[in-house]
Structure formats: C-alpha cells, structure tokens
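Researcher: I'm preparing a figure for a lab meeting and need a structural model of a single chain. I don't have an experimental structure, so a prediction will have to do for now. The sequence is pasted below. Please return the structure as tokens so I can convert it later.
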Amino acid sequence: MQLMVSHLDRSRFAPFVFSPADGERRALLREAGVPVIVGGDLLSVLEQLQPDIVHIHRAGWPESEMLQPIRRFRPRAVVETNVFGRLDDSPLGKVIDLHLLVSRFCLERFAATCGASVDMSRYRVLHNPVDTDVFARLATARDFSRPVAGRLSRPDPGKWSRLAFDTLPLLQASSPDFRFLVLGTTPAFEAFVRDHGLSGNVELVPPMVRDEDLATFFGHLSLLAHANDTGESFGMAIAEAMAAGLPVVTHPALGDRDNAQLELVEHGVTGLVAATAEEYAEAVSWLWGHPAEARRMGLAGRDKAVRFYRVQDIARTLGDIYQELLDRMSRPDTGGPDTAGPGETGFQPTPPSPKSTRRP
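Model: Understood. Here is the structure written out token by token.
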C-alpha cells in the first residue's frame, strides 16, 4: 500500500491514507507527501474528506467493522486489494466493486473454488509492487561463489518452515564456513542455532523498513533462502531479492496452502525449488558451487521483477483502474452503482468533485 499510494500520479489523484493504528510506514508515507490519518472513526474521516474512491487492503474475508462505514458513506467506487484471495460472501462484501488479487496463483485458485458463485469480471490480478529501480541501483556487484545465504521475513513463527532449521546442519557439514544472515528471527530459531553449535555461522540482523537498507542487506548475500510452510499469496521478500539480482531457493507448500512462491521462483530460471531439507541443502550448495549459473538466475529474476512488479508500472495500472471504475460508475447503462437495486453491489454516486483530481 505504501508503495502504491506513494507512486500514484498526483496530477490525476489526490490520495490520503487512513489506518486505525500507527505503524512504521507512516513516516515513509509522509516523506512521500501522502497525508496520513491514524485512529478515530473511519466514517467521520470519509465524510470530512469526501473521497471518490475507497481502496482497502485486507485479507479478503468478511470484516464488518471496515466495510460498514464505507457502505454508509457511499463512495463512487470501492476497490480492495485481497491479500490472500479469499471470498467475502457477506452482504457487506457487495460494497466492493473490484477485487484485486496479488498473484496469478490466487486468482486461479479463487476461480477454481469460487468462480461458479461470483462474477469473475470483478476479480483481477494486480501484483504487489516492488521499487525495482532502488534495488537495481543499490545492489552491489557480488561474488556468487561466497557461501552466504540470507533470509527475510516477519519475526512470526507462522512465516517459518522446518527447512530453515534442518538445512543448516547439513550446510555446516558441507561448507563449514558458510554464513546465514537472518532478518526477522524467532525465539525457537535462536534456540536451535545455540543448541546445534551454529552461532558462528548465523548472524541475526535487526529489522529494516526502508528499501535502501534492504538493498544493502541483499548486497551481502549470494542467494535468498526462502522457507515458509504456509506458503505465499505473493512473496514480497522473494520479489525484492529478485529485484536485487539474487537467485532464490524455495519449496512448495503442501495441500491447499498458498504457493505463489512457485509463480515467482521458476525452477532453474530464477532460482531452485526443493522439497526436503536434503534437497534444499543440495540446491544451496549447488548455487554456491556454480556462480555463473547463480548469476544467470539472479539476472533472470531481476528482469522478471522489472517486467511484472515495478512500482511505477503497478501504480500507473492502478490509476487506470481507478479511472475506468469512475467512468463506468458514471454511466447508467453499465450496471454501475447508479443502477444498482437494493442489496446489489454499488450505491448512488456522489456528485463529481469540482477539482481536476479524484480523491482515493
């Protein structure tokens, strides 16, 4: 959200951000000139600022506390970024005019499981954005033969896999001097490192918010080691590492879990995919032993990130989506909010703003 709104075309739109609680992104939004409102009543904020478009970022399942004030306010268009590709089949869910899913994987799974019961024309893919220009500019020339891997995630046990634990003793046996830089650790992982004599190999890195700092972190690595048993609905850390020119080692998530990491990491093209700790350790060691191939995969990943996730392109597409919705909602023959009956999606449109810029 921070990247999207910061790069939105200000000649077309006048954005602001509302959040019920403060967070680390507030300072970055303010630096980008985006007004931020923290706390208070959402309905009162909407009534004061009168946005034409409301764009919400959420998991996708029913959330009445968020949608009730939006329905009462009646904006001209409502967009959601549906982070996990879930269905909101509640009455309040009908307030949303367009659902943006963050990966092709999420859209295809949604269509397979829910497509018969929903209008799929209201569902599209808009990838999460990455500031690929920053990562390309700050990613330093690296020696891919150096046995240095890194991991990046929230310090949340749900973001981890046993592969991230069990691979390390195997790597120590084959590459005693290897290093593993970890940003976003957990107590269980720290205990594992101590108990298995890995303290000399593992370095715990403090949290980072700015892309410039992440680029420096990636510059110390020869590959990203991704391991998350719940899988990824997109895989932001993977996309950022790809933008920095790193090959990525990942694994499939079992069952019906998220697997967009396999959409980003094409085996043998932008990285390697392994299913067991032994395969994972072999994949990491193979990349260290084949630096030319590692570099090739890193460059392929960088190219893919620029083609699909570059923030300037994503923000431009988002602006076009906003305008498309505003134009469609203004035409009574399109089934937009001005023709919706009771209980249907949409509402009577508010009068157009006299200003030349719309307010999302």
